[in-house]
Amino acid sequence: MDHSCRRRRRTWCCSFAVPPSSPDNLYAATHYSKPRQGKSETFSKPNLSVPSSPQSTKSGSRMAGRIDPRRILSPGRVSPIDSDPAADNSAAPIPSPVIDSRPQLRSRSFRAPTPPPPPPAVVKEEGSGSGGTKDGVFDVRMCLRGKNGGCMVLELNSVVLYANSEVFAGLISDYKKGSDSSSNGSGSSSKMCRIEVPEVDNLGLFRETIELMFEDDLTKRLSKIGVFRSIDLLEVAAGIKFTRGVLSCLKYLEAVPWTEEEEEKLRSLFTRFKFDDATTRDILGRLYLNDSADSQPNVAMQLVWSITSSADANARNELKSLVKGLLSKSSVYEKNHVDLSKEDLYSVCHSCLASLVSLFEGKSDDNPREHSFPKKDMNKPLIERIARQVDNINWLLEIMFDGQLAEDFVDIWANQCQLLKLHDDASPMVRYELSRVSATLFVAIGTRKLQCRLESRSGLLQAWFKPMLLDFGWLQRCKKGLDMKALEEAMGQALLTLPLKQQHMLFMEWFRYFSKHGTECPNLSKAFQIWWRRSFLRGSETHDIESR
C-alpha cells in the first residue's frame, strides 16, 4: 500500500457536542477483566443489563435480532464474524469519530427537524453485501466509555442510526466521506464505522436509549419502563437529537400522572434543556402557570369566600384546615401569588360581622351573602347559623395571627356597640357565641400571640369583659374546642397588661361576680393576687409574697 496515500489522523467531532449523561449517574457500566495471554474475553448479554431498569423478556427477545449479542465486544477485539477481515486489515486506518461530552456544554436546545435522507455511501454498503434489511447489517461499532472507567462496545446498523439521530447521522456521513477518499488511493474501503462516546455517566441508560431506535412501538416500551426512567431516557434522547424518542417520551409523560419526585425531576430537566413550544406546550402547561397573576385574580380570596359561605359543617371544617395550611407562613408550598392581603381578610370579617348583627336582629334575609344558600341555610336553627359566623371569624383570626394582621380587629371588635346591645337582650344560650370571639382574642393577648396598643387592649376588656363573665358558664358547657383553663390564665394575664387603676376596676367587678356565681365565673385568683401585691404591698412584704 502506498503510504503517501494514507490520511493524517484527525479528530472526528460533531458540531452538536454530545449526549448529556443521565442525572441519576446510576452505576451500570460493564467491567472487563484483564486480558490473559494477549486474548480478550467476550462477555455474555446478562452482564450488560441495567438492574435499575425494568426489561421485559419479550422486548429482549426482539432486540436479540437487532443488536447481535455476539457483537458486544471487549476493547480491541476484532469481531469473529466480520464479513471481510482481510479487507479491514488492509484498508487505510480511518480514525473513529468522537462525540465530545464536556460537562460545560450539557445545556442545549432541541428542535424536531425533518428526517434527512440516507447517505449514498450507506445505501451502497447495504446493497453490496450482508443482507438487504436494515437489521441485517451491523456496520457501526460504537464504543461507550463511562466516567467511572467502564466501557461498552455495541455493533449497530448505520441506516437506523442515521434515520433516528441527527448527531450520529453527521458522524456517519463524515466517516463515509473519509472512507471513500481513502479507498480511492488504496483500492479498498473500511466496512466498519467506529464511533466513540466518552465520559458517559450511565452506560446502561445510553444503551437503552439506542435500543429505542430499533423499537416500532416506543409508547408501549416506555409504559413498561415507567415515568422516572423515561425522564432519564428523554434527557439522553434530546442530547443525541433522537427526534422520535424525544417526541414519544414527551407524549407518554404528558399522558400519565406524576409523583412529586417525578415532577421535580421534570422541572430540573426543563431548566437544562430548551424544547420548542409546539413539542412541550402540554407538559409545560402542567408544570407552570404561564399566564400572569392578574389573569386569575384573588384565588385565595375566592377560596375564603367559598368557605365562609358554605352551609355544610363537615365540608367547611375540612376545607378550613386545608386552606389554612396552604396560606400558613410555615407552609412548604410556594405562595408567590396566593397570599391574602389584609384588605381581603378584613372585608370577609366585616361581612361576617354584618351577618351576626342581622341574625341577632332577626333580619338574616338582608345579608346578600346569605342568598348563596337561601333554602338550605334558612331552614337551620338560629343558633346554628350564628355559630357558623362565629366559627368563620375565629378561623379568619387564626390566619391573621399567623400573619401578624389581627391588631386592627381588636379595635373593630371593641367598637361593636350594636352587638353589645343585642347581647344584653339575647338569650344566654345564643349570646354566648359572641363571647367565643372575645375568648379567642383574650387567649391571643395573654399568650403573647397578639401584640396591640394599650388603647386597643383597654377598649377590648372594658367592652367585652363583663359579657365574658356572664357567658362563662355556657362556655364551660359548650366548649367547642376551647380550653377553659387556658382561657382563665389568659384573661388574668391580659388584665395585668393594663394600668393598675384600670386593673382595680375590672378585678373588683370580677370579685363581686365570682362571690355570687362561683364556678359559673372564671377563676382569676392568681392574677388577682399579683394585682393586689403590686398595688398595696411594698418592700419586704413584696419579697415575702414572691418567696411564698
Automatic annotation (TrEMBL):
Region (Disordered) residue spans: 21-135
Per UniProt, the ranges with Polar residues bias are: 40-60
Q: Give UniProt keywords alphabetically.
A: Ubl conjugation pathway
Q: Which Pfam families match?
A: BTB-POZ_ANK-like
Q: Where is the At3g05675-like ankyrin-like domain?
A: 293-538
Annotated metabolic or biological route of this protein? Protein modification; protein ubiquitination
Q: Does the keyword Electron transport apply?
A: no
Question: Which regions are flagged for Low complexity bias?
Answer: 79-93
Query: What does this protein's UniProt record list under function?
Result: May act as a substrate-specific adapter of an E3 ubiquitin-protein ligase complex (CUL3-RBX1-BTB) which mediates the ubiquitination and subsequent proteasomal degradation of target proteins.
Protein name in UniProt? At3g05675-like ankyrin-like domain-containing protein
- Annotated organism of origin: Stylosanthes scabra
